[in-house]
Design a protein that fits this description.
- The protein is globular and about 40 Å long.
- Helix 1 crosses helix 2 and helix 1 crosses helix 7.
- The protein is about 55% helix and about 0% strand.
- The protein contains 7 helices and no strands.
């Protein structure tokens, strides 16, 4: 099992490149997976499966949502019309540090959150999950 950040970065980059038919050079840390790299939701499942196969780190789609939302109840994370609240934006800033919360305030809807997700964000989540798995072993 890859155990350092550099090895995990390679695993994530390779998984994304293989799943999307890209050269690994195209899979840069700040590229958004669903935007810049043109992945679709089904591709994300494939990417997560490839990461698990290569690293033994399991992340499900539900885990992504849980990590992104940080345990904040739906009604506090977003308004009734699915616009992410200030509380939700503060949580997103923790897991997606590259976002501009001021620019997104009042305009970001829940369905668009994953479009902000970068290769680096995914790498960070895999590394965090790997450290939890290693600590538990």
């Amino acid at each position: 099992m890859p155990n350092n950040a550099n090895e995990l970065s390679v695993v994530v980059r390779d998984a994304i490149a293989e799943a999307l038919g890209l050269d690994t050079e195209e899979v840069v840390p700040d590229a958004t997976v669903l935007g810049d790299l043109d992945a679709e939701s089904i591709d994300l499942l494939d990417i997560l499966f490839r990461i698990e196969r290569a690293s033994k780190v399991k992340i499900k789609m539900a885990d992504l949502t849980e990590i992104i939302q940080g345990g904040i109840p739906d009604e506090e994370f977003a308004s009734e019309d699915d616009v992410i609240s200030a509380t939700g934006l503060a949580q997103l800033k923790k897991v997606l540090p590259q976002i501009d919360t001021d620019a997104l305030s009042g305009t970001l809807v829940a369905d668009e959150v994953l479009t902000l997700f970068t290769v680096q964000n995914l790498t960070d989540m895999v590394a965090e999950r790997a450290s939890v798995v290693t600590a538990a072993a």
